Amino acid sequence: MRPYHHTAVITGATSGIGKAFALEYARKGFDLILTGRRRDELQHVADTLSRHYPVKTGIFAGDLSDPSNRNALSTMIENTGVIDVLINNAGFGIDRPFYGNSLDDIRSMINTHVLATTELTHAVLPGMMRRRKGTIINVSSLVVFTPALTRCLYFSTKSFVHCFTEALSMEMHPYGIKVQSLCPGLTRTDFHRDMKEEEKKKKFKLLDFACPEKVVSHSLKTLESGSVTCIPGLMNKLLYMLARLLPLRFQAIFVNHQ
């Protein structure tokens, strides 16, 4: 008889932070449900992990901006039984001013960042509350503290994720459920995959890109300490403190010189 394995659900697991979380939880012996939009890449991640670690890996390929996919994944989660960990990592950026976005782009970002995070959290909570344990990590962004550093729609949706997570942590504290808002800065992920290296250096000349594995390691260490907000990296912590001290117009001056 196969011994009991904990199970982690990780969205946006084809690359970057999501993939790094998948690797870390596979190392810990967790069975995995991995989601992403690119089926072949997602299956490759799942197959690689199951070859190297004694865990089961299931996949759900689909765009979480689509309500039918969110419903199907929520049903899959509920039918799985015990979910010990949920990582809401799926997300994307649009490097255009708000007025340059189509309504389809706007709805897609809101659905992915806001509704997917909310609905999947809602799907796992009943079981976690019954067992009085569980972990939920919602990937927000450093930009929730530095709005001038990005476009307004991304800032707004990630701000929802952060505020939702902070409030949820207070509700779930009596149940022993750990809840974290992970707020990484620039990270080597597919988020900037269409930008050439020279473009990155020009646009972010005062900042450096962290590797996803370090972000995940910092997240899990912070989780054990009981802190709800996790800001990985010394430079990101400094930016966070500056953002709390400087008026928005000075932040804008800093950004314009990046």
Describe this structure in words.
This protein is α/β, with parallel strands linked by helices. The protein is 51% helix and 13% strand. It contains nine helices and seven strands. The chain has helices at 16-27, 39-52, 67-80, 103-131, 152-172, 197-203, 212-225, 234-245, 248-256, and strands at residues 7-10, 31-36, 57-61, 85-88, 134-139, 177-182, 229-230. A seven-stranded parallel beta sheet has the order 3-2-1-4-5-6-7, sandwiched between helices. Helix 2 (39-52) links the parallel strand 2 (31-36) and strand 3. Helix 1 (16-27) crosses helix 7 (212-225) and helix 4 packs parallel to helix 5. The protein is globular and about 50 Å long. Mean pLDDT is 87; it is low at 194-206.
Q: Which key terms come to mind for this protein?
A:
51% helix; 258 residues; seven-stranded parallel sheet; globular; single chain; 9 helices; 7 strands; alpha/beta
Find the structural class using helix and strand composition: alpha/beta
Secondary structure tally: strands: 7
Major pleated sheet: 7 strands, parallel
Low-confidence parts: 194-206
- How much helix is in the residues? 40-55%
The value of Rg in angstroms is 18 Å
| Oligomeric state of this protein | single chain
| Strand order of the biggest β-sheet | 3-2-1-4-5-6-7
What shape does the CA trace take? globular
- What fraction of the residues are assigned to beta strands by DSSP? 5-15%
* Elements, N to C (H/E): EHEHEHEHEHEHHEHH
Q: What is the averaged pLDDT score?
A: 87
Distance N terminus to C terminus? 58 Å
